[in-house]
Amino acid sequence: MITTTVALVVLLSALMHAGWNYLVKVSPDRLLDTAALTIGGSVVSALFLHWMPLPDAASRPWLGVSMVVHVAYFLALVEAYRHADLSVAYPLMRGLAPMLVALAAPFFGEPLGLPLIIGVVFVGLGIMLPAIIGLHAGAIQKAGILFAVLNAFIIAVYTVVDGIGVRLSGSAPSYTLWLFFLNAWGIVGVALWRRKMALFPHLRQRWAFALSGAVLTIGSYGIVLWAMSVASIPAVAALREISVIFAALMGSLLLREQMGRLRVSGAVVIAIGAGIIRWA
Predict the structure, then answer these.
(1) Under the phi-then-psi rule, with left for phi > 0, alpha for psi from -120 to 50, and beta for the rest, what region is 231?
(2) Dihedral, CA of residue 50, residue 53, residue 58 and residue 60, to nearest 10
(3) How many CA atoms, within 13 angstroms, populate the side-chain half-sphere of residue 183?
(4) Phi, psi torsion values for 241, nearest 5 degrees
(5) pLDDT for 184-239, tens place per residue?
(6) Alpha-carbon distances of 173 from 51, 52, 63, 153, 178, rounded to whole Å
(7) Residue 15 CB: number of other CB atoms within 10 A?
């Protein structure tokens, strides 16, 4: 069972995660802003690494794999938001991922009781409901769905990798900061390859975005990594996806995206699933 404290901080993480995804969605240049965001994360992390112990050696291979997977994540995220609304792509990415994590749980020694399985399924279905119906109605581009589904698989991979890695690290804050310190360079390399030297003047103009987005990304994922070190990985992964409700509100109120009634219906299903997970 997830404690009330863990549940509350994971919900805070969900709000922060939806916030930085909103910033990427409304960005005038998503690739360069994503690179700027990761650079900001690297800078912020570097400020604190001196006071942190090194992650235990057993966790470092997992950290290395996670770096590669996160580059793929950011690239797929940019493409998903290029082809689909925030309130469509985000729910699909975040809804499918916890169900994939739950399916993989037996392979990394995580016990799954029936109530937890039911809760994860409810959360996943509630999150994906607007995207599924919208696609059937012809209101959503297939390319957006494809990139969102691809990113759901990527999210599931890094969730499992980092869940194991943080447990082996001996220090969740240290693992988190090293991950964000190293994460930038892959996506920066891709940005330089695609856009040449445009990144550097972009950074001078968007430094405030880079730092504010970095605080949200590091805080959001740091909370989740800590939670996975003290509670069930599948349960934390599913509960964190309550962020879809926040993303739906941002998409509806700030971006004037449609499908409001479907999002409300999905949110009710999500709330039921979250309650089951909390007491599983």
Answers:
(1) beta
(2) -10
(3) 34
(4) -75, 5
(5) 888 999 999 988 889 999 989 998 889 988 999 999 988 988 998 888 877 787 77
(6) 10, 8, 13, 25, 9
(7) 15
